[in-house]
Design a protein that fits this description.
The complex is a heterodimer of chains A (255) and B (281).
Chain A lengths: L1 E11 L2 E11 L4 E5 L6 H8 L7 E7 L10 E4 L11 H10 L5 H14 L15 H14 L4 E5 L7 H17 L3 E5 L3 H7 L2 E5 L6 E6 L4 H4 L3 H28 L1
Parallel strand pairs in A: 3-7, 3-8, 5-6, 6-7
Antiparallel strand pairs in A: 1-2, 1-4, 8-9
Helix pairs in contact in A: 2-3, 2-4, 3-4, 6-8
Chain B lengths: L7 H11 L21 H18 L11 H14 L1 H33 L1 H14 L8 H8 L3 H25 L3 H9 L4 H38 L5 H10 L3 H29 L5
The chains are: A alpha/beta (255), B mainly alpha (281).
Amino acid sequence: MDLKLDQVSHHYGATNVLDDISLTVKKDEIVCLIGPSGCGKSTLLRFIGGLERPSSGQILQIGEPPAASLNPLTYIFQDFALLPWRTVEGNVSLALEDHKLPKAEQRAIVEDVLRRTNLSDFAKALPRQLSGGMKQRVAIARALSVRPAVMLMDEPLSALDSQTRELLMDDLVDLWTRESFTAVYVTHNLAEAVRLGHRIVVLSRRPGRIREIVEIDMPLAERKDRVHELEVKQHHLWDLMREEARAADRELADV
Amino acid sequence: MSETTMTNADIREAEQNAAPIARPVPFRGGGFVYKPVRIAGPLVFIVLIAIWEFGSDTGWISPLVLPAPSEAWTAFMNLVHSGLLWKHLGASLQRLVIGWTAGTALGIVAGLAIGLFSVARSGLQPLVSALFPVPKIALLPLFIIWFGIDEGSKVATILFGTFFPTVISTYSGVDNVDRTLIRMGQSFGLSWTSIVRKIVIPGAMPAILSGFRISISIAIVLLVAAEMIGAEYGVGAYILMAGSLMATDQLIAGVAILSVLGLIIAWLIGLAEKYFLRWRT
C-alpha cells in the first residue's frame, strides 16, 4: 500500500500551518519529514494517520493494505504513550484485544513482537521500571503487533539521550533490514534523518511547504559505517534548514 | 647546596605550597524529604492519653469538665458487656455501608458522564455546583417526609452527602487523564468502550480513590448527625443520649468509637490504594 498526499493545506484560524503539500510514500520506504519547530510536521503526521482533518486537500491510500494488517496506519509517539497500569505484554496486547483474535494467536503475536524487540525477559515489567529506551522499544513492539502497512513515527527518539538514541537507531535499521516496513518518520534531528531515511522531505517554516526532497541511495545497513559519506548530505540539509530554523526561532518570540 | 642554604621563611612557604589543608566539603543537602516514622503516630495518641489520665488522677482536670480516659474505657466496657455496642455499631455500619456505597456508585456514574459527554457536563456541572455546598443535614426533615423516619432518611442523607464529592473527584480525574494515551487508543482503532474501560477509568482511579477519603469522612459526620435527630440505635444516638444525661464518660466512649472507625476506614482505603495504584511510582 502506498500513501499519497494530495495538495494538503491547513490553517488554525488565521494562521496557515501547512501549504500545498503533495507527496507520495511508497511501500517499504522510510520517508523522513524534517523542518524547523512549528513547521507543522507533527500535524501533517496526524493527518496521515487520520487523527485530524486538513482544511483542504486529501490523503489517499493507494492499493489495499495487506490482508493480515490489523491497523494499517500505526503510530509511534515521542512520549511512548504506554499505559502505566499495564505490564509490557499488557501494553502490547492492548492493541490486539479489540480485534477478536483467538487467545492463542494473540499470545503468539505478543511473544513474537517482544522477541523481535528483545523484550522477552521484560514481559511482566511495568513501564515505571523501564528506561526511556526500553519504553520506546515496547511502543515499537506494540506497533509491530498490529502488522502496520505504514508506521507513523512522531519524533520517536527525541525523548531519549544520545547513546540510547544510537542503540535504537541500530534496532530500527535491523528491524527494517530483516523485514522491510513503510514509515513516515518525523524528526528535527538531521543525523537520524540521514541514517534512517530513504527520502528526506525538508519543510520550510510556517506555513510549511516542501522545500526540497533529498534522496539517499545508500542501503540502511551500511550507513552506520559510512557516516562520513552521509555528512555531505547532512551538511546540505543543514544549509537548507539553517535560515528557516533561525527565522522560526525568532518568530516564536513575536507570538 | 641550595638545600643547605634554605632559610626558615623559605621552609614555611614551601610547606604552605606543598600541603594545603585538606578538609571535606561541608554537607548542606538533606532534609525536606518525608520519611515515615512508624511509631510517631501511635506515640502521640499514647502520650496525649497518658497526660490526660495523669491530669484527671491528680485532680488537675476536673471530672466535671472531662472524665478520665479510664472512666470512658469503663463506660465502653459496660457497653460491650451489655451487648448494646453491637446493636449501636451494627445499626451505624449498616447505614454507613449502604449510604456510602450507593452514593459513591451513583457519583462515579454521574462523574464519568460529566467527564465524557459534553451535554452531561454543560447540563449537570452547574447543578452539582449548586447542590454540593448545601449541608445535607439541613434537608433531613425533607428526607424524613420523602423516605420515612426509619432507615430511609438516614441512608438518603449519607447518599446525597457522598454523591457530590464523588462526582467532582471523578470528573476531574477523567479530565486529568493523559490525552496522548487517549489519542494512542484511537490510533490503534480501539472502540469507544475500550478506551473508556482500559484508559479513562484506570487513569481516573487515583482521583477517584482520593475522593473516597473525603467522602467517607463526610459520610461519618452525616451518619452521626442523622442519628442524633431520630434514631433508637446507632453511635450517634448513643452519643446524644449520653450528652442529654450529662454522662460524659459515655460521650467520650462514643466519640472514641467514631475515631477508631475513621482510622480503620482510612487504613482500608490505604490498602485499596496500594492495590489499585501499584503501577504508580
